[in-house]
Structures are given as structure tokens and as C-alpha cells.
Amino acid sequence: MKIDFDGVQAFVLVAELGGFNKAAEQLHITQTALTRRIQKLEAYLGLKLLDRTTRRVDLTAVGKEFLPKARHIVFEMTAAVERLKDMSQNARGNFTLACIPSMTSHVLPEVIRRYASQYPDNRIRLLDGASNEVREAVLNGQAELGIAVAGDKHPDLLETVLFADPLVFLCHTPHPLQHHKTVSWRDMRDAELIGVSSFMATRVFMDYQLAKRGIRLHGNYEVQHHATAVNLVAAGVGSAILPSSTFKTGDRPNVLKIPLVQPSVKRKVVLLQRQRGGLSPAAEAFHMLLRGMSFKI
């Protein structure tokens, strides 16, 4: 059923203002155009709503019964449109973000703090998961935006590189390598390493880069998450190779972050969104903020 909103709005104004002249002025249309709207609505309903003479306009019995309902329709529609305008102009609303857990250590909290200061009434629902899970969440509409490690391109996803995230060496002091300004991969052959799961995008990326250069490292321990590896390093269990973004110098006492070289291996962190459909105002504001930030990794 198609509701003639223009006709309903015209009817309500004529009834409330008591005449066509004032109603036409408020709608910024001619009286002729206003009359056509009323006639079109009455024709659609098959009922007469107004009795009009040269001196006055009266509501018919049906018109009196319909007026409260018509007022409600106009009020609800006007309020809904104003809410949408407010969302568009002030980027208000809620959205869902899918993100790899490593970004929640330092990068994402800083972005969210800035976003919250600009849009304090907005709400973000966060889905954390592996890179492939982030991609799936964006593809199937569970999340409007995703932050993941660059991988195989998908035709339905738009990827924007946010920053390059170098792999670094984390160790607990005292350690034989603690005074080195940089550490090479070969320096770590005898280190007790804590590795991340082979299913993690970082591990897959690292193994591929090292295999190209004929370098193999042995890890004594394996964990599922970067945060667990950091905890074990802090406890003195071993050392780890992790993305730089997962750890900031000073986070844990007696834990050092040393750049890895020969080769320097970096993963690309990307922002994901669907190719089609566009973003809600709240998600678009977050998208613009994220792309405009300079990340110190």
C-alpha cells in the first residue's frame, strides 16, 4: 500500500490552520497545488475529508475521525526524517567494527579515544577475530568496517592500507641480545622463542617472508594470541617475534623491543569495507578519522 504523505500532510495543515491559504503558505506551494493534494488523497481513499465553501473549511465526519491518525503519521514521519538529517549532518549513530586482536593493544584504543571525544553519543560494537574472520564479518554485513592484515584480495571488498607494521624482537632482561640496537634473524637461532599459532595471519606472513630468504627459526613454545606471547615474555619464559604495534616500550618492566633486520619484515594493516552499499554516517566518520591519522608504530 502506497501512503500519500503529501496529501496527509496537506490535510493536517488545512485542518489545524483552518484554511487553504495559511496551509499553502506554510508548505510554500500555491493554493491550487494544495487543492490537488487534498483531492488526490480523497480520491485515493474514496472518501471526502473536507467540506469547503467560499468562506470556510470544515471537516467531514470521516475527516474528524481521521485527523488524529493523520497527525500521528505526519509527526512520526517528520521526526524520523529529522533524526536521519541529524545523523547525516552530525555523524550520529552506532556501527560495528571487526578488528584483529593485535590492534586492540595500542592502535585502536587511541583511535576510539579521538572518535569518542568528537562523537560522544555514538556507540561502537567491536568484533575481534583473526584476519579471515574480520573479512567474513565485513562481507556478510556483520560489520561495516574491518581492520585486518593484508591478504588475498576479494572482489567485494575495498582495502585501504593504514600502515606498515614491522616485526620486532621482544625479550626479558637480562638477555644476551639486550644491548643490541638491532637484531638479525640469524641472531635468534639459539633463542628460546615463543611463536604464535601457524593459523594466525602474522605467522603465515612471517614464515613466507623467511622462507623466501632461506631462514628457519625454531620456537620452543606456541600460543594462539599475541597478548599471551607478551605475557610469557614478561614472565621470563622466553622471547618472541611480534608485530611492533602489539607492544610499546614501557608497557612491561624489564621487557625490551628491538628492531629486527636482515631482513626487515613488515605486515600491512588494512581497513576493509564493502565495495557497494556505502557506510552509515557514524561509520563514515570513523573511517575518515582512521584514514587521517598518522600511526607511530
Characterization of this structure:
- With 297 residues, the chain is an alpha/beta fold.
- The protein has 3 domains: 5-90, Winged helix-like DNA-binding domain superfamily/Winged helix DNA-binding domain (Arc Repressor Mutant, subunit A), CATH 1.10.10.10; 94-162 and 268-292, D-Maltodextrin-Binding Protein, domain 2 (3-Layer(aba) Sandwich), CATH 3.40.190.10; 165-266, D-Maltodextrin-Binding Protein, domain 2.
- The protein is 40% helix and 24% strand.
- α5 links the parallel β3 (94-99) and β4 (123-128).
- The mean pLDDT is 87.
- This is LysR family transcriptional regulator.
- Belongs to the LysR transcriptional regulatory family.
- Residues 3-60 form the HTH lysR-type domain.
- Keywords: DNA-binding, Transcription, Transcription regulation.
Q: What's the level 1 CATH class of the largest domain?
A: Alpha Beta
Gyration radius from CA atoms, angstroms = 31 Å
Helical segment count: 9
Let me know the number of strands.
12
What's the CATH H-level homologous superfamily of the largest domain?
Periplasmic binding protein-like II
Which structural class best describes the helix and strand composition?
Answer: alpha/beta
Order of helices and strands: HHHEEHEHEHEEEEHEHEEEH
Helix share bin: 40-55%
Mean pLDDT: 87
From the coordinates shown, what is the CATH architecture of the largest domain? 3-Layer(aba) Sandwich
* Total tally of structural domains: 3
Alpha-carbon distance between the two ends = 57 Å
Please describe the biggest sheet, giving its number of strands, its sense, and whether it closes into a barrel. Answer: 10 strands, mixed
CATH domain fold name of the largest domain:
D-Maltodextrin-Binding Protein, domain 2
Low-confidence stretches: none
Tertiary shape: rod-shaped
Could you tell me the strand content as a percent range? 15-25%
